């Protein structure tokens, strides 16, 4: 729980040292017991997708039309709708 407290404080205050200490606490928590891993993973993904891009602007290499959705999450799927020509 220490990790979550320092992470939220670092996020709200824009303090990178508190955020770094939060992840150090998370690493110690994982070393103590494996059940802390989902919490650390969730906060790491939150940091990568929401906190980090907001601090330096949205990169031009991430156009919104390229985000995977629907069938593209399944292995072996191209993400495109099935062709009607193949069914004929």
Question: What's the gist of this structure?
Answer:
The protein is mostly helical and 88 residues long. Helices cover 56% and strands 0% of the residues.
Question: How would you describe what is shown here?
Answer:
The chain is mostly helical. The chain has a domain at 2-58. Helices cover 56% and strands 0% of the residues.
Rounded to the nearest angstrom, the distance between the terminal CA atoms is: 58 Å
Q: State which percent range the strand residues make up.
A: under 5%
Radius of gyration: 19 Å
Structural class: mainly alpha
Shape: flat
Task: Tell me the number of helical segments per DSSP (H or I, 4 or more residues long).
Answer: 3
Question: Average pLDDT value?
Answer: 77
Low-confidence runs = none
Q: Helicity range of the residues?
A: 55-70%
Largest sheet: none
**Annotation, overall tally of beta strands:** 0
Task: Write the element-wise H/E pattern from the N-terminal end onward.
Answer: HHH
């Amino acid at each position: 729980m220490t990790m979550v407290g320092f992470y939220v404080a670092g996020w709200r205050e824009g303090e990178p040292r508190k955020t770094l200490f939060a992840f150090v606490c998370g690493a110690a928590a994982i070393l103590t017991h494996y059940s802390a891993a989902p919490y650390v993973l969730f906060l790491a993904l939150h940091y990568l997708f929401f906190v980090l891009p907001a601090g330096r602007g949205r990169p031009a290499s991430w156009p919104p039309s390229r985000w995977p959705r629907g069938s593209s999450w399944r292995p072996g799927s191209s993400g495109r709708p099935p062709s009607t020509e193949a069914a004929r």
